[in-house]
Backbone:
């Protein structure tokens, strides 16, 4: 596969970066979560959002819920159940503070962008309904940062269920991009009783889709997938059910697509 062709404006920037005349912007820590549920025949489905065409980053692309780590995501006051920040640091190949922030951001962003909350009253329970007006008020307060994740959990008497997350991948936005993210990918199963909802914001459409179907739609040019999303969906397409996804061994290695010249054109290439 020759890689993704860079548009003219980005190609011009890429040449400046590759020549050393322009320094890459720093990549911000971020987390994204592949929400899973069993579909017809038990085959896994994933939750995808289409980013609005007006967005500055990945406009029009179908993505998983996620976003940047907030400084307060590293707050040690966040109630925690499951693998510790130190254990996550080992899995994610990050220091403990970064790992704490990534896991918190994964759960917070999933709630903000889908209404799904991976938290419960105790280490063996999970909330079963987040659709009331009071939940919506909290979701909006988290989005506008008037409420921290630690405050949200504390006020509701909830603990973050880190055991409901499985680390899947680590992608860094190419150095040629104007907005860059250092993103850890997680997978998680939709908790029983909870349901996603179209919460608006950065997305103009949401859909549950079999991974193989999403990849096929991308091949036909009917939807747009960024390389990390495409690769993740391709990997998940080989799993027969949700249990197989969760049982799949993952060695988290860092992947950063790079710009290369192919027949006079600049393309983003992902190493195998």
Residues:
């Amino acid at each position: 596969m020759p890689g993704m062709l860079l548009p003219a404006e980005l190609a011009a920037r890429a040449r400046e970066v590759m020549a050393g005349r322009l320094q890459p912007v720093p990549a911000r820590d971020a987390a994204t979560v592949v929400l899973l549920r069993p579909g017809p025949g038990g085959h896994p489905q994933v939750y995808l959002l289409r980013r609005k065409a007006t967005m500055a980053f990945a406009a029009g692309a179908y993505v998983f819920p996620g976003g940047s780590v907030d400084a307060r995501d590293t707050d040690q006051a966040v109630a925690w159940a499951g693998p510790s920040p130190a254990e996550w640091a080992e899995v994610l190949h990050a220091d403990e503070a970064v790992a704490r922030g990534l896991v918190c951001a994964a759960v917070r962003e999933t709630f903000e962008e889908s209404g799904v909350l991976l938290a419960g009253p105790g280490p063996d329970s999970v909330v079963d309904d987040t659709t009331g007006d009071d939940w919506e008020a909290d979701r909006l307060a988290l989005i506008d940062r008037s409420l921290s994740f630690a405050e949200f959990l504390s006020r509701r008497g909830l603990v973050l269920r880190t055991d409901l997350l499985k680390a899947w991948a680590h992608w860094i936005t190419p150095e040629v991009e104007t907005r860059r993210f250092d993103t850890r990918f997680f997978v998680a199963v939709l908790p029983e009783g909870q349901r996603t909802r179209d919460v608006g914001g950065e997305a103009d459409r949401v859909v549950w889709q079999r991974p193989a179907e999403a990849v096929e739609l991308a091949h036909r040019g009917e939807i747009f997938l960024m390389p990390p999303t495409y690769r993740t969906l391709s990997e998940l397409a080989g799993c027969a059910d949700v249990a197989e996804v969760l049982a799949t061994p993952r060695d988290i290695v860092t992947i950063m697509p790079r710009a290369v010249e192919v027949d006079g054109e600049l393309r983003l290439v992902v190493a195998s």
Notes: Residues 4-31+66-200+246-267 form a domain with the Nucleoside Triphosphate Pyrophosphohydrolase fold (CATH 3.90.79).
